[in-house]
Amino acid sequence: MQKGTNAMKAVLFDLDGVIYEGNRAISGAAEAIDWFRSQGIPHLFVTNTSSRPRSALAEKLARFGLQIPPQSILAPPVVAARWLKKNIKGQVALFVPETTRQEFTGLPLLPGNAESGAAAVVIGYLGKGWDFATLNRAFRLLMAEPRPQLIALGMSRYWQTAEGLTLDVAPFVVALENASGLQALVLGKPAAPFFEAALEQLGAKPSAACMVGDDIQVDIGAAQTLGLRGILVRTGKYRPTDLEQGIEPAAVLDSVADLPAWWQKQQAAGEWSD
Length: 274
Ligand SMILES: [Mg+2]
Hints:
Blueprint: E1 10-13, E2 20-21, E3 24-25, H1 29-38, E4 43-46, H2 54-63, E5 73-74, H3 76-87, E6 91-95, E7 118-123, H4 132-143, E8 149-152, E9 158-161, E10 164-167, H5 170-180, E11 185-186, H6 192-202, E12 209-213, H7 216-225, E13 229-233, E14 251-253, H8 259-268
Parallel strand pairs: 1-4, 1-12, 4-5, 6-7, 7-8, 8-11, 12-13, 13-14
Antiparallel strand pairs: 2-3, 9-10
Helix pairs in contact: 4-5
Bound molecules: magnesium ion (MG).
Magnesium ion binds next to loops.
């Protein structure tokens, strides 16, 4: 254990609420990302977004002046598609927006009106696309024999939109778990396999990585359970009461813009050692 050596080698950035918020970049986010790039510090953008594919996320970020290639973004549809190809034989029922379907190319998909015959039922973000008939169709698919695998594209409970806090994926998954008696396999934050896939892509150990997020549970709590350092930002869905839940982030920053300075301070103080 040699104090003073910098053992911090990788950063995972959440996107929504950290890098951008609605239709604008968080002030200073571009400069912060540029700094990590200039230092050659491996980083990956890990988002629970399933409302659009990575290509559309990259285009959105480019409109904010943020050049982030799709392969630098890890999202639940990507991890789920890999898992399905490996583990599921049979048709997949997708509850994701039309554009997100491109991440599942190559998988046999169940016709949109079928109420049985799914080997897996994948629940992503439908937002206002959810209605009783849609939720009930997912339920009927889950009740049909043989029972399919229920897959959750992350378990984010809510997120911040221009209109206010908004239901995300988890509440719908929990409703379906409750009715069907099945338990979802979670292939997004806060599940360990998602963080493990991200660290594997960067070639980093958990103890050598930071997770920067605006969600005290899904980003910070989950990452810290796995041995990463969680850095909470006071943007996006952050509320002061988040810090009263018994989860203590390694740092709380006003925004991602403060991250390079914090990083350098930790480094200079010899806070990180092998
Ligand atoms: Mg977020």
